[in-house]
From TrEMBL:
Key words, A-Z: FAD, Flavoprotein, Nucleotide-binding, Oxidoreductase, Proline metabolism
Pathway it works in: Amino-acid degradation; L-proline degradation into L-glutamate; L-glutamate from L-proline: step 1/2
Gene3D superfamilies: 3.20.20.220
One Pfam assignment: Pro_dh
Biological classification of the source: Bacteria, Bacillati, Bacillota, Bacilli, Bacillales
GO molecular function: oxidoreductase activity
This enzyme's EC code(s): 1.5.5.2
The name this protein goes by in its record: proline dehydrogenase
Cofactor annotation: FAD
Reaction catalysis annotation: L-proline + a quinone = (S)-1-pyrroline-5-carboxylate + a quinol + H(+)
SUPFAM superfamilies: FAD-linked oxidoreductase (SSF51730)
Location of the Proline dehydrogenase domain: 41-293
Amino acid sequence: MITRNFFLFLSQNNFVKKRAMKWGPKLGAKQVIAGETIQEAMETVEKLNKQGLVCTVDHLGEFVYSREEAIESADHCIRALDAIAETGVNCNLSLKLTSLGLDVDRNLCRDNMLRILETAKKHNNFVRIDMEDYSHLEETLDILQELRQSFDNVGTVIQSYLFRAEEDVRNLKGINLRLVKGAYKESPEVAYQKQEDVDRNYLNIIKVHLLNGSYTAIASHDHRIIEEVKTFTKENGISKDQFEFQMLYGFRTELQKQIADEGFTMRIYVPFGEDWYGYFMRRLAERPQNVRFALQGLFSK
């Protein structure tokens, strides 16, 4: 049986990556990636907006190792924000700090973020810092707190498979957070290994953040989680304006539309760019059902 660990291994394997990139569309990546260019991403977002769905775009790329690459990645984020403003689509921006040079120079990364947030503020837009693996967690939260001294249009992501998730959520009261289960392989010393423990903690941190009066983005394709959140918010008098649901582009599209039709904010995470490989492998790792995208792509004409 193909396992989660197998795909997580492939997501970090450069040998396989180099070969896979040559025939990426045949892997089914095109079904979950909104093209390679900003223009293609905007066209996808516009179509989703017409269905009553709002979006966040993410220019794929992580673990850059030079100042030039980091600056180029930041410039790409700025161009994406400008494109969102020019096209008038309902969309914000997601990004990874490693793509902005976190592993090269912390100050470089911070300065890139400041440039991006200045542009987002000019356009009255919001930027989400995606959470990466555990080794980057502390630096990500430290930079977030530093940025929030000057900007309120920035938030981040907390992963429920980490033991420290509830403490982090409480410390980030009042900040717009995307809450997720988690997509990396982490040590038993820092993370739950059983799915039921991850799910239980996920619902816990959602309720904690909502009851704190903080804006909460519930990023899940699990209909059971979604229904429980709907019930919880109704029973506790929590306005639909205080939270949103989020899903990945290309997954559970009928459920996405259903949630939007019920009057909830449904935001679609729309990735684009040439460096799609790591993202795609993690999606295959998350749920065995996702493997069908790859198989359909391989055997399609």
